[in-house]
Amino acid sequence: MSPAIALLAALVGAAGISTGTVLQQRAGQEIDEPGSTRELLARVLRRRRWWLGQAVIATGFGSYAYALHIGPIALVQPVLVTGLVFGTIASAALAGRRLDRRLLGTSVVCVVGLAAFLAIAHPQAPAVMPIPAVTPLVVVGLLAGGVGLLGLRGDGWSEPLRAALLALATGGFYGLTATLFATALAASNLVAAVISWPFAAALVTSLCGWVFSQRALHLGRLNAPVNAVIGTTDPAVAVTLGVLVLGEWVRTSPLALVGQVVAAAVVVAGTVAITRQSAALLDTARAGSGSASGDRAPAWG
């Protein structure tokens, strides 16, 4: 199957997942501060906007799963970084605002950096899938779970710090989930994939990531900061596991490695810039809304 098709499917998946996440975040921020994570989940599950977001995410995930089935994870997963760009666009659209030119320009830089990374790394799947190495999977799962628990139990810690820890855990679990799904989808048929242990493990890790993401999205008052952490951690974990666990190949010559590092730095810088510019726009929107309608929060992010 052509890598171009896998790339297109991954882009559609990134757009669906990020847009649905924005919808869910808005649903979560419309409720009062809950006393526990269980109470938060119970409240958001009663909101129609949250279910609309879940439907959009499910559609995006279907396209993403197809991309994982036909392409290497080292190609597919980094494309999800574009979800930050799609999420920013969705936030502006839902708020009825035009995109800031600087924000749009930064988004273009982020996409160019991603394209350069993929062109230089030139990821390829192995001719024969090796037996997955379990140890790296377990290590990543334990680390992500520990970081997530710190974010949940960090009473007295600042909301940005807890949101960052929860976003790190979410990205770790999502990268792990992608690796497990890619392993399961390498089976000879759909039935064999569904009854395999990687598929069962992926359901568990995806649930863990989902729970942590809901809390992170509630604590993060704008989708960009949370998605910036998730969007960089997820592909970093997935590409690493793709090489260590799935035997995938990327260029490792000194010149290629330098190019990959530079391109990745451009992507990271782009995500940070998008985060800061979005936060500045949010502050401006809040100030304008406050002067026009008291303390009511604006419809942004």
From TrEMBL:
Organism expressing this protein natively: Actinomycetospora corticicola
UniProt keyword list: Membrane, Transmembrane, Transmembrane helix
UniProt lineage: Bacteria, Bacillati, Actinomycetota, Actinomycetes, Pseudonocardiales
The keyword Mitochondrion is assigned to this record: no
InterPro entries: EmrE-like (IPR037185)
Protein name (record): Putative membrane protein
TM region positions: 73-96, 103-121, 133-152, 164-184, 190-212, 224-247, 253-274
Glycosyltransferase in keyword set: no
